[in-house]
Amino acid sequence: MLANTKTNSGGDLIILAFNQDNTTSTETGDINWLISTCNTSKDSLEQLYIMFKSAVFAVAFGITADYHLSEDCVTETFIRLTQIKRFNPRKGDGKGFILTIARNVALELRRRYKKEISNSFIQSYGDAEQTVEDSIYINQLLKHLNDKQRQIVILKCCAEMTFKEIAKVLKIPETTIKSRYKRAMDILQEKAGADK
């Protein structure tokens, strides 16, 4: 459904636009090889950046709820990726590895700038008919979730991760992830007045 997330900024307003992309067909082995060579190969780093910048931004925004901190997180994540000394391309989970780095960086940034983080709006433009009011409404719905639920929903919907991948990144059992996601969706449906 949602294969990629593009982000644009307009002041303090966040726009998350979803569109289809076929970058998800890359094999884990290719990603792992790119990670193991990105500290010496600019091309490897560039390919990883193109493949994961949107997912890293989604993870960061889910944690910080701040556009500028999320951009900083994307930059810092790829800088840290080039500094990795030990990564086994035969055993590693490249996507989970990158998103774990992103999550850790986002948590660090949120702690460092907690008092400065302002409320941002999420705008979802899929069709031309959607209005700013719809986007503000989505943001208001997400405020009903706690931090952990919001992170899981954003990782599932924006970064298009599986429950297993989310469990690895958040270091929480998969069953817990599923139950929190279900509870979050129930809350969102209830607050939106949708029929189950």
Description:
- With 196 residues, the chain is mainly alpha-helical.
- It has helices spanning 28-37, 42-64, 67-82, 94-112, 132-142, 147-157, 163-170, 174-192, and strands spanning 4-10, 13-19, 121-124.
- Helix content is 60%, strand content 9%.
- It has a 3-stranded mixed sheet with strand order 1-2-3.
- Strand 1 and strand 2 (13-19) form a beta hairpin.
- Residues 1-26 and 117-131 have low confidence and may be disordered.
- Strand proportion, as a percent range, falls in 5-15%
Number of domains: 1
CATH level-4 homologous superfamily: RNA polymerase sigma factor, region 2, helix turn helix motif
Numbering strands along the chain, what is their spatial order in the largest sheet?
A: 1-2-3
The helix count comes to 8
Uncertain parts: 1-26, 117-131
Share of helical residues = 55-70%
Order of helices and strands: EEHHHHEHHHH
CATH architecture: Orthogonal Bundle
Strand and helix layout:
Layout: E1 4-10, E2 13-19, H1 28-37, H2 42-64, H3 67-82, H4 94-112, E3 121-124, H5 132-142, H6 147-157, H7 163-170, H8 174-192
Parallel strand pairs: 2-3
Antiparallel strand pairs: 1-2
Helix pairs in contact: 1-2, 2-3, 2-4, 2-6, 3-4, 4-7, 6-8, 7-8
